[in-house]
């Protein structure tokens, strides 16, 4: 074993090894999460704002237009950040021992080719684009029901967060099956096609298999989306821009 894993008697200390391995794993997990999430949020909201300014400068989008607006912005962000999503999924599966995000990207590219970095693209877009579209629709429609004095009051951030939570739960439940399929494909792209993954999930667990993990995913995505939109709304208001 490496020197830093030895105790004074020259023997491997299992507790020390465990701690070091946990620290290393945590660092890799945090680094790939930041690399994926922060640029992804920036790409999404900048695309969303650009599309809205171009197509809906003088009027608010209706429900159908809100779906297209959110889905379009998410498609751009999703394709841009998919290689990092693949690395995140593989790391969380516990089947791969990557040391860093850059090392993982290089390893996948050299051993499996560029295509592997975009594995699960269809399933990802089928999950993320509808999620974002449905989210924006519910979020915008919920905000329209608010009295103007509430929307412009000191409680606006809290109200926006509440609207975001409702929208997130609805959107998460609708898109959960596509998320389960995407995860199967990205863990082992050489063995799974989208049709194979769907057949396997249904054969093993039935319809319920497509909704496994729905509660933790719904909570995570709902909280993240609600927080992101609340911050976005506040930043736009501070800068005097129309959100």
TrEMBL record:
It is a multi-pass membrane protein. PROSITE patterns: SOLCAR. One of its GO terms (biological process) is glycine import into mitochondrion. It is found in: Membrane. One of its GO terms (cellular component) is mitochondrion. It comes from the Eukaryota. GO terms for molecular function: glycine transmembrane transporter activity. The keyword Nucleotide-binding does not apply. PANTHER family: MITOCHONDRIAL GLYCINE TRANSPORTER, MITOCHONDRIAL GLYCINE TRANSPORTER B. Belongs to the mitochondrial carrier (TC 2.A.29) family. This is Solute carrier family 25 member 38b. It comes from Labrus bergylta. The lineage of its organism: Eukaryota, Metazoa, Chordata, Craniata, Vertebrata.
